[in-house]
Amino acid sequence: MKTHRQINAPNSGLLCRSFSSLAVATIGLFLFYTPDVQAIDENTEKKTVSHEIAPLQKGQTITITVTDADGPLIGANVVVKGTTNGNIADADGKVILNNVPDNAVLVISFVGFIPKEVPVGNQKTIDVRLLEDAQALEEVVVIGYGTLDKKQVTSAVTSISGKDLMVGVGGSDISASLQGRISGLIMNNIGSANAGTTFQLRGLTSINAGKSPLIVIDGFPGGDIRSLTQDDIKSIDVLKDASAGAIYGTRATSGVILITTKSGSNTNGKVKLTYSNELTKKQAYGAPQMLTGREYAEHGIGTDYGSDTNWWNEMINDDNFSHKHHVAIDMGTEKAQVYTSFFYEKNQGISLSDEREDYGGRFNANFKLFDDWLEVRPNVDYRQAWRNNNIPAFQQAMRNNPTRSPYDPESETGYNVWLNESLDYNVVADARLSTYEGLDKWFKPEVTFKLNIKPVPGLSYSQTIGYENRQWEYHFYRSRYHRSELEESRRGAAYLNFSKTENITSEGYANYIKEFNGGHVLNATAGYSYFENNGEGFSMENFDFDVDGLKFWNIGVGSYRSDGKANLASSKNITERLFSVFGRANYSFQDKYLLQASLRHEGSSKFAADNRWADFWSVSAGWRISAESFMKSLTWLKDLKVRFGYGVTGNNDFSSSYMADMLSSDAYWMLPDGTWAYSFGKSQNVNSKLGWEENKEWNIGVDYSIFGDRFYGKFDYYRRKIDNLIYNVKVPQPPFTQGSQWQNIGSMESKGWEFEFGGDIIRSKDFTWTTNMNLSHNSGKILSLWGNNTYYNGNGFVAPGTPGDAARIEEGSKIGSFYIWKFAGFDDDGNFLLYNKNGEVIPAAQKTENDKQYMGNYLPTLIVGWRNTLTYKNLDLGISLRSWIDFDVYNTLNMYFGIQGRGNTNVLKDAYGKFAHIKGEKQICDYYLEDGTFLKIDAITLGYTLPMKKYTKFVDRIRVYGTVGNVATITGYSGMNPEVNITNWDGGTEKFWDGSFYPMTRTYTFGLQVNF
């Protein structure tokens, strides 16, 4: 139910219709604009020209020069067809062959390029240009513990190359470059230099356990996406459904993201160096329009101190400048390849006190020993990030009296600090009179040994041993002149914190690939997996120091330690262990009939001994209809595959403490006789029957490719049912010592569809237009909780006042619905009128919780990602767009700051404009529910590539580009940003009171890449 579209609703409808028309027009171009299309029918018997060559006779000497788009193609293979007469291209791309007959045919090839056959005739010199085989580069899909040809995949898997990621968009991690690229993947990041990213794939998968996909980096499960730098990424494969993810068992309920970093290549021993950098400037835009100092004074809201301060602008860092530098070295031979990289990055946010400084490196290698019996692949990754995350609260910029100045030239600090006003304080001084220093470290060495058992072709065994160490250091000091210290009559506050997490992984698996006569292909994998997680930490705090300048580096001298009021704490995490054995088999018959089955038997230390093991399995099948003989007449159809998968996965992503026998001191504990004692005892009820949350999911899909792979795409429809949801429920005392216990009670479902299509709209000699679009829809529902009339409330609104909650889940409720009062109008005094549960109009003062209704929904009806790349010779233009269509956002900015007479805090200009009629207390009702439909231009990139090989032998190419990120958001929503967090059951609200409220930021980036 969509309500109250009176606020800019016509614009939203126009946007939706315009975007739909644009999408239809694009599809029309796909279907009807197809110049230069060559229909290729792989099912028709291939007609080839036979070049019969007599025994090699003495012939001529010829010189062949092999190039690609960038210049000489070093290492290209040139051979006389049907003979062993051949050689490898040198540093200039040249090959000289002797004794070549006039009737010979040369075969020129190189990995990743389309081979060419060239008749010699009477030519003495031959120039050959190879074209990159984009399809060949993408036809291998990483599926976890192995790979498959793309045509053999029977599950819902999306793969993208590292080259397809958006460049120049910055961000705190690589998520900004992924926006809109993968259907069904939602990422929430506020845009701060230090912000984390929340991932959600195909909707909500749990209420109280983890909801994000498993990240696997170079085969290491549980990787941290923050440790990666974009330049090192080779490919990303996303396992969306349970039939694909079941091989990862208990950690795959929310999907799996497999990230492969670059590795060395065979360069014939030549060292290839790549240097890239980006220079970025950020700009704030879209700030809420608050009253100016003079307007505030004219309306008599509070005391007029004489200044005219825009507090929002005072908190913006207009002098920001970010830059990053990346150097990579690639070299190798047939037996040894090495890739190593180093980077440095300084990232300054648009806000004051929001910055970070990163550096790190990576070493990936592959060595073949003992006549290729053994392959050794070491990977080492290190990253360190220094952070200043002392971002001032931007909600305070909206509240503060604009007639007050943040500065006082008479003050020792230069700041105007006033005390004891909780809703009006100098937020700039708060940030500047405190010091925040954080230090993140990631260190991840791992090595894989692969034994190729050569007497049995296709049989190998891989053993991976990996270790990851994550450390966090937090240093914080608040000056004696800070508001909080003055109010507490203290002389400074110091905090130190350290935590360490260690992950150990050991995995071994055998793989057997065999092609039998008659077109039968078997790809089987069997192995084990072990994972262990440990963590520890300590912290200290002290107050009241004689000297400010030493800050936290002399924490022991504060007077609170000698007075016995300082705090020390230490902790050690409960060890988490996972062990499993698994197997998977893929079968293909003539690449037409495809089957896959997998099983993982897994145990977790998080559960009681009698309940810690479970089986997670999947089956899937595919039928490549295009390979059937009855499809031969459809020459325009390159590939058509129907697939179906079903799988069961678990959710292990919750705290080990849920099942731990926890003890604590200084707590009230109920004794067997029903009396309470203040003593040492159990602080948690243990549930020995606690088990896995379990996801059962089916997926049906279609993959298609037409006109010789010129146009391609896929469609998927899926349904998930998650059983045994974990809730913390109330239990009686006695017999339980505590009033709550974690139990498996409840179920929910998530279902939806995804559609992807792409191709070359225009393809000519000098100009191409390539487009990729994905559309998705998801909805969810609570099927059951633990009893009748049982519910959870959430999305609580903050003071002033007691507005209440805006979300509820109970049996039958839809994920994304708001649980609020229904607006009925205003009375003559400007007070809210609401509907009660009987449909009667009542004053807001008479409302009860039972009068609330489910209204609206924050899950978009349609999510669209659209990327366009246009190239003209060496010039390229990339445009990336996203849209969420038909969803609701609760606008708390208008609710809290759009009403007059709410004390002495500042208000929006609209409080004396379109909301001037509202005089009463704010209410959580659908009056503030708006259509959030938006079209966002994520990035526009213009680049130029200059081939350099013809000018110098030292540089292969130079590429320069400029990117504008977060270009514009077209929407009818009247708040600041309609792209709110929708990754939880109580989302959909533009919250100004939590850490997600951050200025809208546009970026301008200049990039340079030089290949030596």
Question: How is the secondary structure organized here?
Answer:
Elements: H1 9-32, E1 60-68, E2 71-72, E3 77-80, E4 86-88, E5 94-100, E6 105-109, E7 116-119, E8 125-129, H2 134-138, E9 140-142, E10 147-149, E11 157-161, H3 175-178, E12 185-188, E13 198-201, E14 214-217, E15 220-221, E16 233-239, H4 242-245, E17 256-261, E18 272-285, H5 293-298, H6 311-314, E19 322-332, E20 336-348, E21 354-369, E22 374-389, H7 394-399, H8 427-432, E23 434-452, E24 459-478, H9 483-488, E25 493-516, E26 520-543, H10 559-562, E27 567-572, E28 576-589, E29 593-604, E30 613-624, E31 637-651, E32 663-670, E33 676-682, E34 693-706, E35 711-723, E36 726-730, E37 740-744, E38 747-763, E39 767-784, E40 791-796, E41 805-810, E42 818-820, E43 822-826, E44 832-835, E45 841-843, E46 853-855, E47 862-872, E48 875-885, E49 888-891, H11 892-897, E50 929-931, E51 934-947, E52 957-971, E53 989-990, E54 1000-1011
Parallel strand pairs: 1-8, 14-17, 49-53
Antiparallel strand pairs: 1-2, 1-5, 3-4, 3-6, 6-7, 9-10, 11-16, 12-13, 14-15, 16-17, 18-19, 18-54, 19-20, 20-21, 21-22, 22-23, 23-24, 24-25, 25-26, 26-27, 26-28, 28-29, 29-30, 30-31, 31-34, 32-33, 34-35, 35-38, 36-37, 38-39, 39-47, 40-41, 42-46, 43-44, 44-45, 47-48, 48-51, 49-50, 51-52, 52-54
